[in-house]
Amino acid sequence: MRIARTTASRRRRARHGLVTLLLAVCLVACADSQPEAAVTAPAARTPAPRQIASTPCELITRDELRKVFPLAEGARQEQHDAFGIASCEWNGEFGRLLVQQWPSKGHTPRQEVRDLARGFTDGSEPDLDRVRLVPVEGMGHYATAVVERRDPDRGVLADMAVLSISRDGKTLVFLTDGLDEFERDEALKRLSLLGGYAYQRL
After folding, report:
1. Is-above-0.85 flag for pTM?
2. Is 185:131 a contact under the CB 8 Å cutoff?
3. Can you give the pLDDT at residue 60?
4. Mean pLDDT of residues grouped by 10 in the chain (202 residues)?
5. I need a labelling partner for 184 at 20 to 30 A (CA). Which of 95, 132, 136, 200 fits?
6. What is the pLDDT of residue 126?
7. In sequence order, which residues have a C-beta less than 8 Å from that of residue 86 and are 6 or more positions away?
8. pLDDT of residue 19
């Protein structure tokens, strides 16, 4: 009996050590030079069975859109396809939301967000440290968001709210001006919520 208890205790310690090691490896692999803490998508839990959307317009339901944008009731929806990019655009009293999808071609979502952020910043200033890239948990590798207010003194020329995620060889990018009324932290949460809805169908 004592030998069995000792063996069970050793197994528990071994499992605990393995979990600790895996967590340490993940922390090292996911470490980022930016000081921003990750945000977690509140609705990233995937219901079973998973249903894959055939177009970007099917990634988000109207009810989900209203949860993120309170003024989205009656928003108009338009679908576009050009140059290998499938797009869905919602326009309404809340503002505008554009969702674009294309095959992943080596760029990570983080790189996509950095490239898009250049369009909102002063091109004469190559340093993008003023744009705070935030990793988003629960939506695959390198999911990244950025929310910044217009601040010419910092080289930010326009409000921006951008999120990029990827899954199964598909890249998704969200751009919206519908979160301008919210504080940055709340805007990031709502943007991540939107991404969580789409990720479960991507």
Report:
1. no
2. no
3. 95
4. 40 37 32 53 59 92 95 90 94 95 92 91 70 93 95 90 96 96 96 96 94
5. 200
6. 57
7. 55, 56, 79, 80, 100, 101, 102
8. 33
Contact predicate 157/122, CB 8 Å:
yes
Using an 8 Å Cβ cutoff, are 162 and 109 in contact?
Answer: no
Which is it for strands 39-40 and 134-137: parallel, antiparallel or unpaired? Answer: parallel
Question: DSSP string spanning 55-103?
Answer: SGGGSS-HHHHHHH-TT-TT-EEEEEEETTEEEEEEEETTEEEEEEEEE
How far is it, in rounded angstroms, from Cα 164 to Cα 128?
17
Distance CA(130)–CA(148), nearest Å, equals 9
**Amino acid symbol at 86:** A
Q: How far is CA 104 from the centre of its chain?
A: 15
Neighbours of 109 (CB within 10 A): 26
Residue boundaries of the structural domains of the chain:
1-31, 36-199
**Residue 46 near residue 198 (C-beta atoms within 8 A):** no
- Residue with token string 């217009």: 150
Question: Cα(120)–Cα(116) distance, rounded to whole angstroms?
Answer: 7
Residue 126: helix, strand or coil by DSSP? coil
To which H or E segment does residue 149 belong?
Answer: none
Task: Let me know how many helices (H) and strands (E) the chain has, helices first.
Answer: 4, 8
Instruction: Say how far apart CA 128 and CA 115 lie, in whole Å.
Output: 10
What is residue 74's predicted lDDT score, i.e. its pLDDT?
86
